[in-house]
Write a structure and sequence with these properties.
The chain has eight helices and nine strands. The protein has helices at about 10-25, 35-40, 110-115, 145, 160-175, 195-205, 210-225, 230; strands spanning about 80-85, 105-110, 120, 125-130, 135-140, 155, 185, 185-190, 190. The strands form three sheets. It has a four-stranded mixed β-sheet with strand order 3-6-5-4. Strands 7-8-9 form a three-stranded antiparallel β-sheet.
């Protein structure tokens, strides 16, 4: 699968990977994501693995969403239902296709927590204004993040167990959509700002690829016919 990328480095490598993961990409419909989650984000006991409410073990310590029957729906608080979260917020790329339904960055999440995350940048929170039941936070950035050049007043921080997952999703996005029109607090035209790159590399290193990610990558390949190279080759 990656034959065209071996021996390449730097931007040449990124371009080679973009060619590979773009050429086989079968676009999933937005509605089709509900079905896709049944294999990409489903635990052995038929529950949905939600990175905004789980503790990182897949044991659902707070509440659990049952595949299909717990789809949103309305909600008034945590634990109501799960929906389709654009981990790379759709407003950043004006809801354009194929980003809008790219299963790699579309993840099932608690509807209420998703709403609280909104389209804030990912980051590390110094002072939290809100904390979810699993420990995800919304609030002002740490001094370290500000020192790296982050000027955002509010950021969203997932728990440590899933920080690497989101970092590698973002690395996929800036490779798959390199050069595509986009503007967000962490990037421009899918080029990460220096502070965002430093943050995501930190998360990538602190939270190595998990079996959950490998299984998800394989499931996405059967549905969408492309892969996240940063899960297959985290180096």
């Amino acid at each position: 699968y990656y034959a065209g990328a071996f021996g390449q480095t730097g931007e040449t490598l990124r371009t080679a990977l973009k060619t590979i993961i773009s050429s086989g990409h079968s676009v999933t419909s937005y509605n089709g994501l509900w079905t896709a989650f049944g294999t990409s984000d489903r635990t052995a006991d038929g529950k949905i693995w939600d990175m905004y409410s789980d503790d990182g073990t897949g044991t659902h310590p707070y509440y659990s969403f049952t595949y299909s029957s717990s789809q949103c729906g309305s909600y008034s608080g945590e634990g109501g239902c799960y929906n389709r979260e654009h981990s790379w917020p759709k407003s950043w790329f004006n809801e354009a296709s194929p980003m809008y339904s790219d299963l790699v960055h579309l993840v099932p999440t608690d509807g209420y927590v998703n709403g609280r995350r909104s389209n804030w940048a990912l980051g590390e929170v110094g002072s939290a204004s809100w904390t979810s039941r699993n420990g995800s936070k919304l609030g002002s950035p740490t001094s370290e993040l500000s020192g790296w050049g982050c000027t955002e007043g509010t950021v969203f921080e997932p728990i440590d167990a899933f920080k690497g997952d989101f970092a590698r999703i973002y690395f996929y996005m800036v490779t798959r959509y390199k050069g595509t029109s986009e503007s967000g607090p962490m990037s421009s035209n899918f080029e990460l700002k220096p502070w965002a790159k430093a943050l995501l590399l930190k998360w990538h290193r602190m939270d190595p690829v998990s079996e959950k990610e490998r299984a998800r990558n394989d499931a996405i390949y059967t549905t969408q016919h492309n892969r996240n190279p940063f899960v297959d080759y985290p180096n």
